[in-house]
Amino acid sequence: MIVILKPNTKKSSEEYQNLLKILSEFPNIETRVHDVQGAQQTLTEIYLIGQTATIALETLEELPGVDRVIRISEEYRILGRHQDDARMSSFEYNGITFSQDNLNIFAGLCAVDTREHVEQMLKACRENGLQCTRMGAYKPRTNPYSFQGHGAKCLPYVFELAGKYGIKVIAMEITHEGHVDEIRNALEQSGHATGVMLQIGTRNTQNFELLKTVGRQKMFPVLLKRGFGITLEESLNAAEYLASEGNTKIVFGLRGMKNNAGDPHRNLVDFAHVPVVKRLTRMPVCIDPSHSAGTRARAPDGLLDIFHITAQGVIAGANMILVDFHPDPGSALVDGAQALLLEELPHYVADIHIAREAYEKRCTRAKV
Ligand code: PEP
Ligand code: MN
C-alpha cells in the first residue's frame, strides 16, 4: 500500500511523527519513505510493505496528514500503475520535462572521439532546436580489443561545449559505479554547465549492484535500457530496482531484441511495446532506433529504415528518442554504420514532428 501525504508535509511536524508511529504499530508491516520532487511541490509517499491485505483503505485515509491511499499489486510497486493510481508520470531535470505526455530528442554521438566532432554535433543540435544529446564516454564493447571510450578524460570538454551550445541534458552510459563519481566531479568542475542522464545499457540491465548504487543517488535521472535477451517483465523489474532504492526519475528505453527474426536489422524492433510500458508503469518511454536498426539501409520510398522505425515509435507515443549521429561516420570509432549525418538532422526532426502530430490527433480522436 502507498500512503500519500498532503503536499509539502514537513518531516519535523508533529503530525508526520505521529503518523509514522501509528503506521509502525501495525503488525508485520515495514515502512519505507520516499520523497517525490515535482515541479510545484514535494510529495512524501510512505510504502507499507508486508501483510497489508487486512488493513482497510479508509482506516489509513482517516489518519491526520494523509491525502490518499493506494492499494498496489505485487508488480512494480513503485513505478507501476495501480488501481485508482493518479500519481505523476513525469519529472523535471535541469529545466527539461520528462513525461509520458511529451517528447524529447537526444541526437548525438554514440561515442565521443574528438573535441571537433563533439562541437560539430552540439552546434547542429542547437541549430535544430534540440536541448538534449547523447555522448558516450564509457563504451561497453563486445570485443575487448575494440575502442572502449575516452572515459573521464573527455568529460571536461564535453561538458564545457554542451554549456556553450545550450544543451541541458546529455544521456551518457555508465558501466561502473565509479563513473558516476567521475561525472559528478567533472560537472562540478565545469560549474554545472549542463546536466547528465545516466544510461544503463542493455548489457547491464540486470547488473543489480550497479542498479542499486545508481538508484541510491538522486542527483541524476536514469535511462534504463531494456535487456536484449530477457523478458519485458524482467527489464521492468530492473527499473523497479532503481526506484526501490529511492530514485524514481527513470526513463525506460526500448532498443530492440536480439533475435534472428530481426534480420536484416541488428535487433528485432520492439516499439510496439511503447504503449505497453506506458500502461504498466508511469515511466516515460524512450526508443533507440539506431541500436535497433543498426544500419543506414533505405527503403524504396526514399526513407532510411531508421526514419521509418523512429516514426513507428513516435506515432505509438514514445517520449524520448536516443539516436546516433556523426559528422563523419566513416571515421567513427563506434557504430559508424548506423550513424545519421548532420545534414540529415533537419529532415529527421521534421519527420518526427509529422509522426508526433499524427499521434496527438490519434489521441484526440480516441477521447471523443
Ligand atoms: C548505446 O546506446 O550506445 C548502447 C550501447 O546501447 P545498448 O545498451 O542498447 O546496446
Ligand atoms: Mn552504439
Question: What would your notes on this structure say?
Answer:
This protein has helices at 14-24, 57-61, 115-127, 155-164, 177-189, 208-216, 232-244, 274-280, 289-293, 305-315, 345-367; strands spanning 2-5, 29-37, 42-50, 66-70, 90-93, 96-99, 104-108, 132-134, 169-173, 195-200, 222-225, 250-254, 285-287, 320-326, 340-341. The protein starts with a strand and ends with a helix. The protein is built from eleven helices and 15 strands. The chain has 368 residues and is of the alpha/beta class. The model has no long low-confidence stretch (mean pLDDT 95). 33% of the residues lie in helices and 20% in strands. The protein has two domains: 2-71, Alpha-Beta Plaits, CATH 3.30.70; 92-366, Aldolase class I (TIM Barrel, Alpha-Beta Barrel). Helix 3 runs parallel beside helix 4 (155-164) and helix 6 packs parallel to helix 7. Strand 11, helix 7 (232-244) and strand 12 form a beta-alpha-beta unit. The relative contact order is 0.12. The strands form three sheets. Strands 7, 8, 9, 10, 11, 12, 13, 14 and 15 form a nine-stranded parallel β-sheet that branches. It has a four-stranded antiparallel β-sheet with strand order 2-3-1-4. It has a two-stranded antiparallel ribbon with strand order 5-6. Bound molecules: phosphoenolpyruvate and manganese (II) ion (MN).
